[in-house]
Amino acid sequence: MSRHSASANPQEQDSVEIFIDENNGKTDAFEKGDGQYRVNFDNEASFNPASAKSGFKSAAVVSGAAYTVVMRIPFRAVKPVDGTIVGFDVQINGASPQGMRQSISIWNDLSGNSATDTSGYGTLKLVK
């Protein structure tokens, strides 16, 4: 299996997306601290909103037909402490050689609106 990044649109490349709702507000529009973080197999990152880039770090490693993405996403609106509950979702995008998104795997929010609406995210509890 090969990886594809033919499209100029980041969401139509082989990539991993993380969605964070820091205050777990479950709102129908992004608030401060909400963000979308996308990294493709070449470690090219994109963000929504653009300000989410501040402090973000990532690495992508290709191994044969697979790739691994690691992201460090800083908190921007809340102070994370033991027991903090945050809204969270993850999406994997599979692209075709022609540069079209051909498959999507989503952890929790099947609405397809995760880039603008946090109401369908799952939750994570932060622990030490």
- Overall shape: it is globular
Q: How many separate structural domains?
A: 1
Computed structural class:
mainly beta
**Roughly what is the average pLDDT, rounded to an integer?**
92
Kindly state the percentage of residues in helix.
under 10%
Query: Any idea what the CATH architecture is?
Result: Sandwich
Give the count of helical stretches. 0
Largest sheet: 6 strands, antiparallel
User: In percent, how much strand structure appears in the residues?
Assistant: 35-45%
In N-to-C order, the SSE pattern is EEEEEEEE
Termini separation (Å)? Answer: 38 Å
**What is the CATH top level name?**
Mainly Beta
The total beta strand count reads: 8
Q: State the CATH topology.
A: Immunoglobulin-like
Low-pLDDT parts are none
**What would you report as the Rg, rounded to the nearest angstrom?**
15 Å
Model description:
By secondary structure, this protein is mainly beta. It has a single domain (10-108), classed as Sandwich (Immunoglobulin-like). The chain has no helices and eight strands. Strands 1, 2, 3, 6, 7 and 8 form a six-stranded antiparallel sheet that branches. The chain has a two-stranded antiparallel sheet with strand order 4-5. Strand 2 (34-40) and strand 3 form a beta hairpin. The mean pLDDT is 92.
Question: Which features would summarize this protein structure in a list?
Answer:
128 residues; mainly beta; Immunoglobulin-like; six-stranded antiparallel sheet; 41% strand; globular
